[in-house]
Amino acid sequence: MTVQTIDTGFFKLDGGAMFGVVPKPIWQKNFPADDQNRCNWAMRCLLIEVDGRLVLVDTGIGNKQDEKFFGHYALNGDATLENSIRRAGYALNDITDVLLTHLHFDHVGGAVERAGDMLRPTFPQATYWTHSDHWAWATNPNPREKASFLRENMMPLQESGQLQFFGDTYLAIPGLDLVYVDGHTEKMALPKLTIGDRTLLYCADLIPSAGHVPLPYVMSYDVRPLLTMTEKERLLAEAAAGNWILVFEHDATTEAATVEQTEKGVKIRQRGALADLLT
To answer: How far apart are the C-alpha atoms of 147 and 218, rounded to whole Å?
Structure first.
């Protein structure tokens, strides 16, 4: 198995929303806000090659929304999903599986592209995967999350026949397991990889950045924040005990890290590029 990160650019979200009850004077030390109180965040995907399969985990925000939509999020940076995949040495047709941790627009937007007046899956040869319970949740959204679940990001996947659900059909990728968590949204799937003697956890929105490792640092976007804390506590304890590598989808500067248990809770032990931590 080989694994690498795929950069798709940056976007901005309100710092208060990202850090919940944590006061701004604390979080802004490491995550400076602009004049609109927005911090810059990555949209970092994962590319896994194993046993003839090429698996993309999440797809960033995409490029098919209108100028008004993108204006809310101040997209920036030179990287795009397609260009980063090509720089990694692959074509869009090479992707065999797209694993969607959940269907919020900044994770699934790149899964569908606009071709003239049509919307179609970006990866024509790929099977797209999500959890059936999450699909039901996303396609009948609650008022809190409704603005994050856009039908144009989801329905073309089903209409194309390329959508499959975890549980209905087994993903069957050696060395890849899924950890389901429900604090951020219903049945978010975190890929857990075994690479030699190392374990890697792609944290998605459970722990979106290195700054969210402390238990009280929970996003206001989470539908069940107390459950998020419980899920974080359990997984961080396992990560510290097993020297796991945590990959952060949204941290603009820290790609990955290991953690350790201290008297004051779990703390970052080492941070850096995923490739460096794997060596």
So the answer is: 20
**Dist. CA 249–CA 254, nearest whole Å:** 9
pLDDT in tens, the chain (279 residues): 999 999 999 999 999 999 999 999 999 999 999 999 999 999 999 999 999 999 999 999 999 999 999 999 999 999 999 999 999 999 999 999 999 999 999 999 999 999 999 999 999 999 999 999 999 999 999 999 999 999 999 999 999 999 999 976 678 899 999 999 999 999 999 999 999 999 999 999 999 999 999 999 999 999 999 999 999 999 999 999 999 999 999 999 999 999 999 999 999 999 999 999 998
Whole-angstrom distance, CA of residue 245 vs CA of residue 258: 5
DSSP states along 85-140: HHHTT--GGG--EEE-S--SHHHHGGGEEEETTEEEES-TTPEEEEEHHHHHHHHS
Structure tokens at 103: 């269907």
Domain 2-278: CATH class, spelled out: alpha beta
**Domain segments of the chain as ranges:** 2-278
Find, among 230, 226, 136, the residue nearest to 186 by Cα.
136
